[in-house]
Amino acid sequence: MNDTFYQTFVSPWVRMTVNPWTAEAMKWLHPMRTSRYLFAESFSPWMRGVAALAKNLAQHRKPLPKDHPFLVQERQVSNGISGLLEDGRRYRDAMQEQAFSMMYGGAARVFPSADPNGRSR
Fold first, then answer.
1. Is 44 left (phi over 0), alpha (psi -120 to 50) or beta?
2. What whole-number distance in Å separates Cα of residue 110 and Cα of residue 102?
3. With CB atoms 3.0 to 4.6 Å apart as the test, which of 9, 90, 102, 116 could cross-link to 106 if both were Cys?
4. Backbone phi, then psi, for 69, in 5-degree steps?
5. Is the sign of the CA dihedral 95, 97, 101, 103 positive or negative?
6. In whole angstroms, what is the distance from residue 78 CA to residue 116 CA?
7. What is the Cα–Cα distance from 71 to 78, expressed in whole angstroms?
């Protein structure tokens, strides 16, 4: 049924709109491809200037002092993210432990005299 529907209603529209030109255009406009060639010197001549600037910056590079405000802020953000990930890990572990206890060990704590056969102890 699905194949018949496709052959009857969808396939004619696809054949009408897709041709070698549109296939080639779709290939070159794919985001994974455009992100590569838009920044290539062979495609974008202005990237040669970026390459020259990067080379000049690399030659004159100096490390920042330890108390530079950007480095201090970088450390603070990094520590904040690490703390957030640790808190998330602890919360996840606590929830998994609680779920495990409820599924496999909770009945013994909630109903200590419960017997699986229905008899009282």
1. beta
2. 10
3. 102
4. -55, -35
5. positive
6. 52
7. 10
